[in-house]
Specification:
The structure is a single chain. Helices cover about 20% and strands about 40% of the residues. With about 140 residues, it is an alpha+beta fold. Strands 2-3-4-1-5-8-7-6 form an eight-stranded mixed beta sheet, covered by helices on one side. A hairpin with a 4-residue loop joins strand 6 and strand 7. The chain is globular and about 40 Å long. The model has no long low-confidence stretch (mean pLDDT about 90).
């Protein structure tokens, strides 16, 4: 793994508002924002302005966030996952296989439009892990 796990917060349409709130609370810098409409991805009607991915930082403190995908409800209290940035194909394959032995894939391991291999898995204890290997 490249670094510490990063908290990933998911909102039900309030990601832009939350991003501004956290920017002010922590005195952070918004370093990345992409809406569903800006992505090279099929977007349901009415979702163009929802946040697909955003990140804010202050020093070594980093938090990622997004709005949930339309039609997939967000449950407050369960709307956080831990994002891992992995080193290579073998590492992401190994972690995915181990996590899915007893856990449940939320998003199968796959190549993405952002140039990574990605999966989202809920482990048997309800913790959600976002696995990302950014290909060069």
């Amino acid at each position: 793994m490249k670094h510490q796990a990063t908290p990933y917060l998911t909102f039900d349409g309030q990601a832009k508002e939350a991003l501004d709130y956290y920017k002010n609370v922590f005195g952070a810098e918004i370093v990345n924002v992409q809406t569903y409409g800006e992505a090279d991805y099929p977007t349901p009607p009415g979702a163009d302005e929802l946040v697909m991915y955003a990140q804010f930082k202050k020093g070594d403190f980093t938090v990622m966030l997004s709005d949930g995908f339309p039609g997939q409800p967000v449950t407050v209290g369960s709307n956080i996952s831990l994002a891992l940035e992995l080193e290579n194909d073998d590492e992401i394959d190994s972690l995915y296989n181990k996590l899915t032995e007893k856990g449940t894939p939320v998003m199968e391991l796959q190549d993405t439009f952002w140039g990574a291999r990605f999966a989202k898995v809920k482990d048997p204890y309800g913790v959600i892990w976002d696995l990302n290997y950014q290909k060069d």
